[in-house]
Task: inverse folding
């Protein structure tokens, strides 16, 4: 291969045909979810009102690999394998001896990694006779992905979009509508959970989840779909990391020094990092796994590892996770996908076991990295993804300082073409950083239930 | 290969390493450009104030293939080969026996085919010592592409954006700014050509070209770059059609029945179609080549084949082309890239020789096809590209009627993620069609000079 190769792809016979379940390889089992009433471990039946049984069985599976259905592979083949780029222009600009590899999920129909789980979720729901799906969306990427998958399989899609995001980027709403979805601003007047807040409230993922759950639960033809946090969602995203491992090998690289992903609910990070975690656990590689979050919603770096609800209305099971408290409402930053009060239980467990790291960054540093990346590599990153790039930049500059030929893998979870107004504000110097205050953190954590 | 394959790509050793110059294969030579003062054939020296000599030599070249510089290939490799998709979901939705192949240029850094020529144009300018480039942009795709290419090569970029487009989609302007360009609304107050019009005028490509040319011409460190129309621009785009030929062969197809592209200035259409025209001229294939334009700017279908200026201020050479008159200002439709008063001289010549066809479509039919395509294939097309899709839909439905297993190739020149407000208006039923009236046509043509 040429020394100047920049894109690494895979042959058709290298297609990833199974999702990877990290639970099978973890040294200790993750704590179970608890029923919100009895506080006893929740069983598959407790989840049945919300999810089809195929997804529930994936949620509780101990199997290492779960076969991807042919119908799902058919859709994956439209945009997978996603490219792995060697960011040569950016490396030059940074003057770093590090080799930076970028796994880019923005090539998917909805422009982000979310399609990887939207497609199987809609597929399994459709297979079980469901005709309507409800969901929440923060930045809008998940709603877009579910809208597209629903259009493909002929399922009605209804989305509660977090108010701050709904107001800031009407283009996201329109894109969901182009794909045929019905979109509500959350908090809406359509649910008890929504009506508990004033109509002009900026909203939160916790509120939007409560609304979507409230609407789906009583309708026998409807189910709810979640874009992150749950085990089965993380599972579906592992196509990302599995492909990256194969692509890195084609680039002639061994185990990378560090793998970086942004983390809101945790599925993007897990999808990239868990296959590398397997390499650590099974083959003893030394790769560092780093999750990046915003300082305004520092779940992993300042939250507590406790049982908490997944939503604001306390209707979901209790999950053991890093949490800022289920009624925490972060300031409306532009990386709307990184504003969840909790973190995927699996990612939380892995962090708690000391198998990964987490770092919180200010949004101005992230946009700065995003603009630099756009000007060198030609891709405008989603504000969420710019968090991962900012950390990669730190690692690359540290390598420059130390003279190390470090290998950095960074997940670029999506493009920011529908978040361009955020870049406008950044370029105009109008973005502020709003780190979570101690008092706000204490107040929010006070709402976490005793278990 | 699988019967279900949807994406066709190429191996590294199948890389396109030369641009194809259709002039070498045409049965009759295209008429020369004329000097605007002397009305004599314009020589390379007449173009020297605007373009570097490498590009001028390509403009007048008779060579069949022109080698692509390694520095340009390096950038192409970031996004080329662009994918050829078999649009299986759309075929099913249409119930057509036709096989529809979509060549998708939206994977490029700027989201359209324009990067294919922006990169070599900036490269040759930089090589000749130029440090500043000026240009016009209609829909914004060309300005975005040039801004990116300038960022890569460290050249200052200044863009005059057609007023109607500047007002309708601020996101496009911001994207150019993210890539480091300075953007002006045209008509601006910075040039004589701009000051000839009221400040709130919707603008036109003709006016914006005049402005960019006026600023570049007197500055020895500056040149002007054009995003379509000229021979060298069409030449650079032929990587599209050359790749498509190889990809179709991988799909097991022979010569397609029809190749369809939208045409504004003509470079997108030519880039896809000219390599297929070579197959017709040299190997006698029967492929129909169809250019699609809007009814509001029907250059090929209702313009006259005459010598006319490329810009409103009459500063460019005279080109023999289909024209609606250089002072024609089309209604501000959403497909801003299809609002040029003229058509590439090479495309005009090929149409006049009877080697291709042209059709004009209303914008509502185009957006309808665009939404249908998004819901089935997951890609929101640029409003320009939706014109080609609408014609492909007509061909596919005709095949359904006749029961023919037609092979349709359609160029999807870019995505419409920054034109999403146009889709919003379409979904709300607010788009009107504004075909050019007979009286407006007559008035516009009265301005074409006698040569």
Result:
């Amino acid at each position: 291969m040429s020394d100047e190769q920049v894109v690494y792809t895979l042959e058709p016979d290298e297609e990833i045909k199974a999702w990877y379940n990290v639970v099978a390889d973890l040294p200790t089992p993750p704590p179970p979810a608890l029923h919100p009433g009895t506080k006893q471990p929740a069983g598959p039946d407790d989840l049945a009102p919300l999810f089809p049984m195929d997804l529930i069985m994936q949620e509780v599976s101990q199997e290492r690999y779960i076969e991807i259905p042919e119908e799902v592979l058919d859709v994956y083949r439209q945009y997978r394998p996603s490219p792995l780029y060697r960011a040569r222009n950016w490396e030059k600009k940074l003057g770093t001896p590090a080799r930076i590899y970028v796994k880019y999920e923005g090539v998917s129909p909805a422009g982000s990694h979310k399609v990887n789980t939207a497609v199987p979720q809609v597929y399994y729901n459709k297979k079980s006779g469901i005709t309507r799906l409800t969901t929440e969306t923060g930045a809008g990427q998940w709603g877009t992905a579910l809208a597209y998958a629903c259009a493909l399989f002929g399922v009605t899609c209804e989305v509660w979009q977090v108010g701050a995001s709904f107001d800031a980027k009407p283009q996201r709403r329109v894109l969901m509508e182009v794909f045929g979805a019905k979109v509500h601003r959350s908090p809406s007047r359509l649910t008890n959970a929504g009506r508990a807040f004033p109509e002009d409230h900026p909203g939160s993922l916790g509120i939007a989840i409560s609304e979507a759950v409230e609407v789906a639960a009583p309708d026998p033809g409807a189910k709810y779909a979640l874009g992150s946090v749950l085990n089965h969602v993380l599972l579906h995203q592992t196509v990302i990391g599995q492909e990256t491992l194969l692509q890195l090998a084609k680039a002639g690289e061994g185990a990378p020094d560090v793998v970086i992903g942004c983390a809101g609910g945790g599925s993007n990070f897990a999808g990239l990092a868990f296959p590398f975690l397997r390499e650590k656990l099974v083959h003893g590689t030394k790769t560092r796994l780093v999750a990046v979050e915003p300082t305004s919603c520092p779940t992993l770096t300042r939250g507590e590892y406790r049982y908490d609800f997944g939503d604001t209305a306390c209707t979901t099971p209790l999950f053991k996770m890093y949490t800022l408290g289920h009624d925490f409402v972060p300031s409306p930053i532009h990386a709307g996908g990184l504003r969840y009060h909790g973190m995927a239980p699996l990612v939380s467990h892995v962090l708690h076991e000391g198998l990964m790291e987490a770092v919180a960054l200010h949004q101005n540093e992230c946009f700065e990295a995003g603009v630099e990346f756009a000007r060198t590599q030609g891709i405008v990153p989603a504000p969420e993804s710019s968090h991962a790039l900012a950390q990669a930049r730190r690692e690359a500059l540290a390598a420059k300082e130390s003279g190390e030929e470090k290998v950095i893998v960074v997940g670029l979870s999506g493009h920011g073409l529908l978040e361009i107004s955020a870049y406008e504000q950044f370029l105009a110097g109008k973005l502020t950083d709003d780190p979570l205050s101690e008092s706000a953190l204490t107040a929010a954590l006070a709402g976490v239930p005793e278990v």
